[in-house]
Specification:
By secondary structure, the protein is an all-alpha fold. 73% of the residues lie in helices and 0% in strands. It folds into two domains: 67 residues, no CATH class; 139 residues, no CATH class.
Length: 207
Amino acid sequence: MGQLVRAARILVGVLLAALAVLAALFAADVRSWPAALVSGDAVYAASAPSASWAPRTRLGGLAEDALGLRGELRLRRALQLYRESTAVPQRLDEALAVQTTRADAQVALAAAARDSSPQGTSQALTLLGILAFHSVAVGGAPSQTDAALSDFTDAVRVDPDNELAKYDLELLLRLTAAHGVRRGGQGSGVGKGGRRGGAGGLPGSGF
């Protein structure tokens, strides 16, 4: 009986020690995330393609999940893909690269729009609208204009303070009413803020 008690005590001691180690590792992972976000944001501001927001963690994505960062990180990576897509030169020999990078950006932005804060969702929708309308300007399907209008409208609905979405929605409505879809697309200033990179700013940095 005494041996069983001692064995149980040893087992409990081992389990407690293991839990203490896990708790320390988890705490270290939690502490690593704020620094990773700040560092990644700084790199993004200087060179968007080089940015990374993933710290070295000991317990995988456990701290990321506990902190509720998946949506925020998904938005950051979607903005990164958007910035990369707008950086590809608009030349005939780069047509495939443009199409591929924009398709990747659209998929990422659509996912971010479903899993972000209201401001982040609105930002993602605005960029989706810009990409949709740009595809019309370079000979894409006219139906993309309807998609752009829908994206801008939803962006304003989600975040009424999104001035870029309001501007683009109003401008696109005026252009389509005055000139028709294709003529408006060729001479449009829609997405002006996006081409400058303003709309691709990180969450909390403004549009």
